[in-house]
């Protein structure tokens, strides 16, 4: 478990699949997360969970408020210990919990784990060009946009750019200090 001020990150458990089923069938959420195709069946979700659970390069955490409310997932994927980097992904499935800083808090908590426990050097995220809310949140966490994969994602009958952001360990330490003194 990873503890933050208002939330905890728990390894995703089989009992969490019910909420994930709801979220996987939320058209707007999946559009912003870049998840395809819709709808998802419980069997597909079960296969996703089993695959992720057995993949040493992936760790999925449930984002749970201190009162126990399950509001989303955050994950480490493509973990590369030799090069000391990984990718991060996050969804806040509970619409009412968005815009309250929970995403930023979860990202900073997971980055603390990545840099302090796993001793990685770099975290990368991919953000669809129309997801301004996510781009803003990652920037507030200290991530720097370093590039664009031009027209690399197909959705809504057209191609979209994917923005690439990264955070280095030194940048995380600087940002964590800024947030602690704010």
What are the key terms here?
globular; 182 residues; Aminopeptidase; alpha+beta; single chain; 36% helix; 6 helices
Walkthrough of the structure:
The chain has 182 residues and is of the alpha+beta class. It has one domain: Aminopeptidase (3-Layer(aba) Sandwich). It has helices spanning 17-24, 27-33, 42-54, 102-116, 132-140, 169-181, and strands at 2-3, 7-11, 59-65, 70-80, 85-92, 122-128, 144-155, 158-168. It has an eight-stranded mixed β-sheet, sandwiched between helices. The longest helix has 15 residues, at 102-116. It starts with a strand and ends with a helix. The mean pLDDT is 91.
CATH H level, superfamily name: Gcn5-related N-acetyltransferase (GNAT)
Task: Label the structural class.
Answer: alpha+beta
* CATH-level-2 architecture: 3-Layer(aba) Sandwich
Mean pLDDT across all residues, rounded? 91
CATH topology: Aminopeptidase
Question: What share of the residues lie within helices?
Answer: 25-40%
Order of helices and strands: EEHHHEEEHEHEEH
Shape: globular
Write a compact overview of the structure shown.
The chain has 182 residues and is an alpha+beta fold. The chain has helices spanning 17-24, 27-33, 42-54, 102-116, 132-140, 169-181; strands at 2-3, 7-11, 59-65, 70-80, 85-92, 122-128, 144-155, 158-168. It has an eight-stranded mixed beta sheet with strand order 1-2-3-4-5-6-8-7, sandwiched between helices.
